[in-house]
Design brief:
alpha+beta, Nuclear Transport Factor 2, Chain: A, 6-stranded mixed beta sheet, about 35% strand
Length: about 140
């Protein structure tokens, strides 16, 4: 009888947990990135950062080295892109999205900034992780 109760409990938990397909995961990750493009292009850096994990454990690796933490990453963006002329219009080109493990993907791509001060291009590799039901960037390498 105890085994039956245990089995019923396991099945109940499994039925409440919504499993997503890899295709759905990738579509959701791309939608997060589309929102980031829009926010950045409006010089809404806080809105852009909504795609990142709001944690001191967030890692950003760029031309100035390793930055730890959500707030420090935002502060760096604000310093480097203080106005719309500096942030410009952001466009991502996604070259690959691959599953690393359950609830984790890497995204490799290119970014292009069209700006009044000058245009900028580069490449990135970001890692998305599903945290509390939301896809968040936990690590970003951009150059």
């Amino acid at each position: 009888m105890n085994k039956l109760i245990y089995l019923v409990c396991i099945l109940a938990v499994m039925s409440c947990t919504k499993q997503t397909t890899e295709k759905e995961d990738k579509e959701t990750i791309l939608s997060v990135m589309k929102l980031q493009e829009k926010a950045w292009s409006n010089n809404d850096l806080e809105g852009f950062m909504k795609g990142y994990w709001k944690s001191d454990s967030l890692k950003f690796y760029g031309s100035k080295g390793l930055t730890l933490g959500w707030q420090q990453t935002l502060d760096n963006y604000k310093k480097g892109y203080p106005t719309k002329d500096h942030s410009g219009t952001l466009n991502f080109k996604i070259n690959d999205i691959s599953k690393i493990e359950e609830n984790s993907y890497w995204v490799m791509g290119e970014y292009h900034l069209t700006r009044k001060v000058d245009d900028a291009d580069g490449v990135f590799m970001i890692i998305f992780k599903k945290i509390n039901g939301e896809w968040k960037i936990v690590a970003d390498t951009s150059s």
